[in-house]
Structure formats: C-alpha cells, structure tokens
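hey so i finally got around to running the thing on that chain from the lab meeting. sorry it took forever, my laptop kept dying and i had to restart like 3 times. anyway pasting the input first so we r on the same page abt which one it is
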Amino acid sequence: KPQKIPIVLSFRYSQIIDEESLEELSLYVEKLRNEGIEIIFTGLHRKLMEDMEAIEYFHTMQQS
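ok and heres what got predicted. didnt touch it at all, straight out
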C-alpha cells in the first residue's frame, strides 16, 4: 500500500483570498482529508485566518 504523504499549503505570500476561492479550497481540503491525506497550512496571516474562519468548513476544522 503506497504511503500517503502530507500536503503542505503555504500562504506566506498570500495576503487575501476571495470567498469563492476559499469555498473551493475547503472542498479540495475536505476531499483530501476524507482520503486520509493530512493537510498542513503554513504562513497564514491574521486577516486570511479570519476570512477562513468565516467559511463553515474551516471554522469546523479549526474547532476539531
């Protein structure tokens, strides 16, 4: 069985992301996590984190 390698998503140079893109990202992340792939977020700026918390999936993910 092949080893599942974690995916690192770096937002170091991303100050903002529009709501539609965050919704799409949440669907992508959810699909990968359902397949057992760990997702690691790095470089999240405060504003971006606040924007992500407004998306239900990321808010729920942060709570768990």
